């Protein structure tokens, strides 16, 4: 029997999320569920999808590792399309300051926040970053994540940004989870560049981006477009250069202040704009029209005690919405997919079906891979999860607890 040959049969629900591009608006409710479903994978690629009866007529069980999913739901693996999982140090102290009433931006403005993690990440060796990165990936896998986006951005200088991206490269080769890398050199303004933000953007464009692009160290370029961080004009300048160098773009947009990040994402044809707590009606309409995925990060709003992004409104306006954890050491130290799911359904008024779409095919679209992952369709990578329960409806119902029992990655059982 070849590696990556698996046949999963008798699934109470085979939730295929079928599709090869982002689902917008009403389409987000279509999960394409096959009762008593089965899926066949050969050498890690999905070969056939159907009812168990149909599949067993055409495929011989002895050719495969067989998983009997009686009484269980089977879904595509989750795609966590926005994380900052490679970082040094921790900021527990800042969390306690926030409990006391300090805001995230106040802490940042007095020299804490992201800059604190930058210091610790500069000091950390590659081995140390690799060790903590692996631990975080293992945890994500247990939540059913089979592809994760990871950002640099705790270096803000050539050496450390490259170090973070190289650590992700190594982890990508070693770990079952696929890692999509994003260059976020413009995550904060380094101390030496305070008041000279334009020069810092020049530095990134001239000194760092060319290496990232030439060495293919990241597929995406991202920026923290926010009041007192980088302006819309600075963001436009950096992202246009990144596109010229062959990268796709994303933005941390309209998180704390309504700055026009959503509008900029649409103007630039960004693959996604993320956070969007303050996005304007116009920005949302522009994103829907331009096909920019709106990546919402409710665990961050929860952790910062902000109001939630307008997920319901965005979907009703025809946007494609993705959900992600935003795992990072400051605003949101969690990789908990069940928490994200609970918040999206309970507080952002998304249906359970929309939340499943947002974490599968739309997450895949947010990392530019909707043609390869995010659904159980013939020809796609064999990345699926098996729940302990018979329906996807149990995911938010078992509040903030993982319902994932098994994970199959590229046709191999990697978590059980
Ligand atoms: O997505 N908003 C900016 N960046 C991260 C937070 C990073 C940090 O605080 O370390 C975010 O929330
Ligand atoms: Fe982020």
From TrEMBL:
<feature type="binding site">
    <location>
        <position position="326"/>
    </location>
    <ligand>
        <name>Fe(3+)</name>
    </ligand>
</feature>
<comment type="pathway">
    <text>Amino-acid degradation; L-histidine degradation into L-glutamate; N-formimidoyl-L-glutamate from L-histidine: step 3/3.</text>
</comment>
<feature type="binding site">
    <location>
        <position position="187"/>
    </location>
    <ligand>
        <name>4-imidazolone-5-propanoate</name>
    </ligand>
</feature>
<dbReference type="Pfam" id="PF01979">
    <property type="entry name" value="Amidohydro_1"/>
</dbReference>
<comment type="function">
    <text>Catalyzes the hydrolytic cleavage of the carbon-nitrogen bond in imidazolone-5-propanoate to yield N-formimidoyl-L-glutamate. It is the third step in the universal histidine degradation pathway.</text>
</comment>
<keyword id="KW-0378">Hydrolase</keyword>
<feature type="binding site">
    <location>
        <position position="252"/>
    </location>
    <ligand>
        <name>Zn(2+)</name>
    </ligand>
</feature>
<keyword id="KW-0479">Metal-binding</keyword>
<dbReference type="InterPro" id="IPR005920">
    <property type="entry name" value="HutI"/>
</dbReference>
<dbReference type="InterPro" id="IPR032466">
    <property type="entry name" value="Metal_Hydrolase"/>
</dbReference>
<feature type="binding site">
    <location>
        <position position="84"/>
    </location>
    <ligand>
        <name>Fe(3+)</name>
    </ligand>
</feature>
<feature type="binding site">
    <location>
        <position position="91"/>
    </location>
    <ligand>
        <name>4-imidazolone-5-propanoate</name>
    </ligand>
</feature>
<dbReference type="GO" id="GO:0019556">
    <property type="term" value="P:L-histidine catabolic process to glutamate and formamide"/>
</dbReference>
<feature type="binding site">
    <location>
        <position position="154"/>
    </location>
    <ligand>
        <name>N-formimidoyl-L-glutamate</name>
    </ligand>
</feature>
<dbReference type="GO" id="GO:0005737">
    <property type="term" value="C:cytoplasm"/>
</dbReference>
<feature type="binding site">
    <location>
        <position position="82"/>
    </location>
    <ligand>
        <name>Fe(3+)</name>
    </ligand>
</feature>
<protein>
    <recommendedName>
        <fullName>Imidazolonepropionase</fullName>
        <ecNumber>3.5.2.7</ecNumber>
    </recommendedName>
</protein>
<feature type="binding site">
    <location>
        <position position="326"/>
    </location>
    <ligand>
        <name>Zn(2+)</name>
    </ligand>
</feature>
<keyword id="KW-0408">Iron</keyword>
<comment type="similarity">
    <text>Belongs to the metallo-dependent hydrolases superfamily. HutI family.</text>
</comment>
<feature type="binding site">
    <location>
        <position position="330"/>
    </location>
    <ligand>
        <name>N-formimidoyl-L-glutamate</name>
    </ligand>
</feature>
<feature type="binding site">
    <location>
        <position position="82"/>
    </location>
    <ligand>
        <name>Zn(2+)</name>
    </ligand>
</feature>
<dbReference type="GO" id="GO:0005506">
    <property type="term" value="F:iron ion binding"/>
</dbReference>
<keyword id="KW-0862">Zinc</keyword>
<feature type="binding site">
    <location>
        <position position="154"/>
    </location>
    <ligand>
        <name>4-imidazolone-5-propanoate</name>
    </ligand>
</feature>
<feature type="binding site">
    <location>
        <position position="252"/>
    </location>
    <ligand>
        <name>Fe(3+)</name>
    </ligand>
</feature>
<keyword id="KW-0963">Cytoplasm</keyword>
<dbReference type="GO" id="GO:0008270">
    <property type="term" value="F:zinc ion binding"/>
</dbReference>
<feature type="binding site">
    <location>
        <position position="255"/>
    </location>
    <ligand>
        <name>4-imidazolone-5-propanoate</name>
    </ligand>
</feature>
<dbReference type="InterPro" id="IPR011059">
    <property type="entry name" value="Metal-dep_hydrolase_composite"/>
</dbReference>
<dbReference type="GO" id="GO:0019557">
    <property type="term" value="P:L-histidine catabolic process to glutamate and formate"/>
</dbReference>
<dbReference type="InterPro" id="IPR006680">
    <property type="entry name" value="Amidohydro-rel"/>
</dbReference>
<feature type="binding site">
    <location>
        <position position="84"/>
    </location>
    <ligand>
        <name>Zn(2+)</name>
    </ligand>
</feature>
<dbReference type="GO" id="GO:0050480">
    <property type="term" value="F:imidazolonepropionase activity"/>
</dbReference>
<feature type="binding site">
    <location>
        <position position="331"/>
    </location>
    <ligand>
        <name>4-imidazolone-5-propanoate</name>
    </ligand>
</feature>
<keyword id="KW-0369">Histidine metabolism</keyword>
<feature type="domain" description="Amidohydrolase-related">
    <location>
        <begin position="74"/>
        <end position="412"/>
    </location>
</feature>
<feature type="binding site">
    <location>
        <position position="328"/>
    </location>
    <ligand>
        <name>N-formimidoyl-L-glutamate</name>
    </ligand>
</feature>
């Amino acid at each position: 029997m070849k590696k990556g040959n698996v046949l999963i049969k008798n699934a109470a629900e085979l939730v295929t999320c079928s599709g090869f591009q982002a689902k917008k608006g009403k389409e987000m409710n279509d999960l394409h569920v096959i009762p008593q479903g089965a899926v066949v994978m050969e050498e890690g690629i999905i070969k056939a999808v159907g009812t168990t009866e149909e599949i067993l007529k055409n495929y011989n069980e002895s050719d495969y590792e067989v998983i009997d999913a009686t009484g269980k739901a089977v879904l595509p693996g989750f795609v966590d399309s926005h994380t900052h999982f490679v970082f040094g140090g921790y900021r527990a102290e800042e969390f306690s300051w926030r409990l006391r009433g300090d805001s995230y931006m106040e802490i940042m403005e007095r020299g804490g926040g992201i800059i604190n993690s930058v210091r610790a990440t500069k000091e950390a060796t590659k081995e140390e970053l690799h060790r903590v990165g692996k631990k975080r990936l293992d945890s994500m896998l247990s939540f059913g994540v089979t592809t994760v986006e990871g950002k640099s951005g705790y270096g803000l200088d050539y050496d450390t940004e490259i170090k973070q991206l190289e650590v992700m490269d190594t982890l990508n080769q070693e770990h079952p989870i696929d890692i999509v890398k994003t260059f976020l050199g413009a995550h904060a303004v380094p101390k030496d560049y305070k008041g000279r933000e334009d020069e810092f953007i020049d530095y990134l464009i001239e000194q760092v981006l060319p290496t990232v692009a030439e060495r293919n160290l990241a597929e995406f370029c991202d920026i923290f477009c926010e009041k007192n961080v980088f302006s819309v004009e600075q963001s436009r300048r950096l992202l246009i250069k990144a596109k010229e160098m062959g990268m796709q773009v994303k933005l941390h947009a309209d998180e704390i202040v309504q700055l026009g990040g959503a509008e900029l994402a649409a103007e630039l044809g960004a693959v996604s704009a993320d956070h969007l707590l303050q996005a304007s009606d116009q920005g949302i309409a522009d994103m829907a029209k331009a096909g920019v995925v709106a990546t919402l990060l409710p665990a961050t709003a929860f952790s910062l005690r902000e109001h939630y992004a307008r997920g319901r409104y965005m979907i009703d306006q025809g946007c494609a919405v993705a959900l992600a954890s935003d795992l990072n050491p400051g605003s949101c130290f969690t990789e908990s997919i069940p928490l994200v799911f609970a918040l999206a359904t309970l507080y952002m008024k998304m249906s359970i079906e929309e939340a499943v779409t947002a974490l599968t095919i739309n997450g895949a679209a947010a990392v530019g891979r909707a043609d390869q992952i995010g659904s159980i369709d013939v020809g796609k990578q064999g990345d699926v999860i098996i729940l302990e329960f018979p329906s996807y409806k149990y995911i938010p119902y078992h509040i903030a607890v993982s319902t994932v029992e098994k994970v199959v990655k590229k046709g191999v059982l990697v978590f059980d």
